[in-house]
Amino acid sequence: MDPEGLQLLLPATTLAALADSWLHEDCPGLNFAARVTGSAPAQAALWAKSPGVLAGRPFFDAIFTRLNCQVSWFLPEGSKLVPVVKVAEVRGPAHHLLLGERVALNTLARCSGIASVAATAVEAARSTGWNGHVAGTRKTTPGFRLVEKYGLLIGGAAGHRYDLGGLVMVKDNHVTAAGSVEKAVLRARQAADFALKVEVECSSLKEALQAAEAGADLVLLDNFKPEDLHPTAAALKAKFPSVAVEASGGVTLGNLPQFCGTHIDVISLGMLTQAAPALDFSLKLFAEGDTPVPHARRP
């Protein structure tokens, strides 16, 4: 999907609420530094100092909108960043520019970092000729999930379920609590009704066949080594061709191609959100006619 179109997925009211919560977290009381800058009109340049994928413009905009500042972008969402490059300019009262600076940079850096890793993962998968879905997981930062899931989408990955209500996921602990795979899937199907799919986490071919027989839409083959994953998925598909297969657990950017295969529909990686390094951005105030370029980030 076009990155610009993905911005339409973010409700304005949600963006405003998130921006308010982040700004309140950073400055819940007196802002003593405002006395230093004053409230005179000022302008700042946003610089990208490390390579990657630009993601998070709507969140950056929402933060400065709440502070009566205007952002002018020079690069579209999803752009490949080649440092050092000026990405945007922000104009508004000096004390408001600096009040939003760190919050906006944190959000943009984190979202862009996830988009960058997601793009790398998708590229690695596509290089094998595999056309399935590279997906994230629910392993996200509390209070920051929307940013991280959006970053996955900008990077070309699937977000997977956004929350517990997006898909009925039956994991090992659910099976233990229910007493068997069959009972767990039956209860999940009753809860899901016609509106939701049911996915079951399985650690063996036997469990996968039981889950499919009981009515699972998807089977998650968890923590399988590639040499065991593909024959297990093939055996499952041979009997239940309509059941989708997800591979997860132990997948990294380095070994991702080994998990790609004919019988695998989805490969999910928790590291896309848990281990993505933030990109380096800086916001520098400047006088009209003078915009010094900062140094690039060293590897």
TrEMBL record:
SUPFAM superfamilies: Nicotinate/Quinolinate PRTase C-terminal domain-like, Nicotinate/Quinolinate PRTase N-terminal domain-like
EC number(s) on file: 2.4.2.19
PANTHER family: NICOTINATE-NUCLEOTIDE PYROPHOSPHORYLASE [CARBOXYLATING]
Purpose: Involved in the catabolism of quinolinic acid (QA).
Domain Quinolinate phosphoribosyl transferase C-terminal as annotated: residue spans: 114-284
Residue numbers binding substrate: R102, T137, R138, K139, R161, K171, E201, D222, S248, G249, G250, L269, G270, M271
Coiled-coil intervals: none
Protein known as: Nicotinate-nucleotide pyrophosphorylase [carboxylating]
Pfam families assigned: QRPTase_C (PF01729), QRPTase_N (PF02749)
